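Box S2. Input/output pair 1.
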Amino acid sequence: MKKVLFLLLLSPALANAQANISAWIMNLNGKVGSYWAQTATPPAAPTYVFTTSTDSADVLKMCYSTDSIWVRAQGLTDNMGKYMNPGTCLAQNYVYRFPRNPVVATTKVISPKVGAIGSLLNGIPIYGLTNANSWNGTANVPAPGGLGIWNIEVGLSEGFVLDTAFGAHPQQQGAYHTHTTPYRFYRNAPAGKHSPLVGFAFDGYPVYGPYGYTNPMDSTSGVTRMKSGYSLRSITTRHTLPDGTTLTTAQYGPDVSTTYPIGTYCEDYEWLSTNGGDVDEYNGRFCRTPEYPAGTYAYFVTTDATGAAAFPYYIGIYYYGQPDQGNFGVSTLHMPAGVTSCLDPVTNDVEDVIAAGTQFSVYPNPAADHISLTTTADAFTDVVIYNQVGATVLAQTIDRSKMDISVNFSSGLYFVKCYNKQTGVSEVQKLVIQ
């Protein structure tokens, strides 16, 4: 059995509150990336070849300090979707850095329209609103040749080539990235429930799927789809920007036409309070969520009534908080030296065997003083509970499929390991004690 690290040096008081530390999808079992390579050249019909990479999937290492969180990933996961454009998905060796304690930006920072603006929980980057092309006075040309004033909107220009797994595809260098909506994270979420956490923006604020509580600060108020406040502008010429800025003649975009219909450019959209959106111009709101029961600012993936991705998809034109701009452009970030608060399943050796499939369940979780452990095992099962520094706090054998276990431990994050003596299979799950 392979031994991998499942060690998270997390302050007990922050175990439930700091989802930005505990929510990352870690590669705990050596999983590798896999994808459906599209090998045909348009206009030929797509031809897909399922390809398994030799590179690791999901998040490979997470470290944190008092102020920052670092995440290392290859930008891969398993069974990535069928995108339309030709290309393969290649490992990218990303390192992202997020503020651990997000703050509201006094002066708002524009979210990059090109490149990464945040990350999904599995380490796949969230990209901006354009396809890296803009109007240069005579045509739409690849940046930096364009003026960067009238930027091609990615949903209209590339939405049809994106997969239905993460609203994603690879670019020319093989960097798989999401532009619109990560369907796989919330597609099977129970009806009437708050959408799951799907990632974090580079300002450190969480990003959720499309459904939140009807009353932002009342978790018992039911849920509703978070409607975007953006709409297409009522314009026939592109002489002004959505904020009212009047452009010079050299900065004009093409007139609205059948060739350049409204919606061609990001700047064809504007946010209006009269649109009745549930989220603000940054595509978020202050609210309670399952991970932040006391409340947080959170972004929401926006979709229309049919479930299709809706502008601006992840976050608005500006960040709500102060982003870590070290992530922008060609990042030179690296995992920090001397930070020992890390989860690194590749290089460390705290015993835990993670098996595919769910062998047992724990309820309630978070718990107070007892849990009900239900297992699929028909044989004796060893149960071990240990704390975040690897010390065993409970060890016993159960001989039936369901059993109540006393967990009168200090508040914090623990790990429950079950070992099926018949099959030799072990599994570990997190347990929060309040």
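Box S3. Input/output pair 2.
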Amino acid sequence: MYKNGLTYFSSAFFVLIAHAAMLLNVFANGNYASSSDVIILSAAVIGVDLLYFIVLLFCKQMSYTIEFLLIFILNMSVIFQSGFGEVHLSVKHLITCIVALAACRAGHVLCRSHKWIQEQRKYIYIAIGVLVLAILFLTGSRSMWIQIGSFSLQPSEFIKPLLVLACATSVMEQQRKHKILCFNIVYENMILLGIIILICGLQWWCRDLGSLPTFVGIYVCGLFFRLCYPRAKLSKKVIIGGAAVLLVLAVLAIKFAPGYVQDRLFVDIWNDSSGNGYQQTKALIAIAEGGWFGKGPGKGFLHNVFAHETDIVFSAVCEEWGLLYALMMIFAILLMLAVPLINPPRSYFHSTMAAGICVAFIVQMALNIFGSCNMIPFTGVTIPFISQGGSSMVTSGFMIGMLSAAQSPVFKKPKSKKKNTALTQNKEVSA
């Protein structure tokens, strides 16, 4: 039973009704060759719903709110992805969604105990180093992808949860300062600064700066929590000086950015609609033509444009399902991220971890949506859980599991006073 009065089964029923209503819309307004395509899609979505609800019954935890919102969003995305161009089950996306659900459970189990994670800090740093080396030596010529036959892997995606954990596990170390020359230094802060500089350099070397704001957002969020940690005193001059340095670096980064980045920053998409502005112009036209209620599943044109299922998926959903559905999709993700604000985590570690995850998702969504709407330069990043992608989907699922762990943490029970008293008496007698 939930503390707010909602039962487990009524929440599951709500998710089923929501998905059933979407599938009914597909059947009534969709573009499909045969009704069997809709039946297969419906069976897959409802079947995964029911199976996941049964699995959750065996997972004892304080709250299931995040898990219910996750399955709601994932199967919503399966319905969206199965309708672009023509309605048929997107088997690949369905499989990645199931893997994301499994990754969520793994993230929940691994991150519930802050003490255990704290002990694994050095292995987190090692894992980040291994992934960086994999990008440098296994991806080919300045690429972010490892290609294994028809299967591709993006190691940089797996760095995101590791960076969040690195920031969260370094918080307690703020009280351990070491004096070097005239400065009080925390070694973990220097390590994290080196990691973010390494990631920035790696993104530039691979000519893939789209994910850079997400990594920077995680680092800045972790830095803020470290500064706010009790006894982690830092003078205002240092804070102002650091902010000034970041501002100067941002200006220099824009000025000396590679040519392709400069083109995206200053392109007039309507005057270059067949070049650098092609995707954005088509995306804006699709949003306008979709209106509030959309053309209908499978009846859009944007599926003919490259990366419609990933980089401009927001526009593809707007075209076929309408702006109302697209806003509901974004609202559901934001609601899932807002749960830690409704039920605050009970440790500073879990608060830092939850905040880093929320920042990563919000920055990533903002880059995709605002880029598709031409409000900011087009970056080519994906919307978590909605866009297709194996590495991104698994990582996002794991990070939601971390968020869920912040709501159901594990703390070791202190030893009872009776036992401690008995041990003391035995020691006195033996002495």
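Caption for Box S3: The CA atoms of residues 218 and 356 lie 5 Å apart. The longest helix spans residues 348-372.
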